[in-house]
Design a protein that fits this description.
It is built from 1 helix and 2 strands; from the N terminus they run E-H-E. With 68 residues, it is mainly alpha-helical. The protein has a two-stranded antiparallel ribbon with strand order 1-2. The two termini are 15 Å apart.
């Protein structure tokens, strides 16, 4: 199964995005928080440019469907 998505899904009532870009220095701590929240190991499952550029518009993480 493939999930294809994109764009800013979190918007205010006027249609403006309500998210912000994440700084490279915040990526690891954010992923650690997500690991605590989900109980999944995510730190070594980054995809694409996640954590590689000065800022990112999102965090791309791989999850094994057999573990959730």
């Amino acid at each position: 199964m493939n999930l294809n998505e994109g764009g800013n899904i979190f918007k205010d009532s006027d249609g403006n995005p309500v998210t912000q870009r994440i700084a490279q220095t915040d990526v690891k701590t954010t992923i650690a928080w997500l690991e605590q929240l989900t109980g999944l190991e995510l730190q070594d499952n980054t995809l694409g440019s996640t954590g590689r550029k000065p800022t990112s518009g999102d965090l791309d993480l791989a999850v094994d469907a057999n573990k959730i």
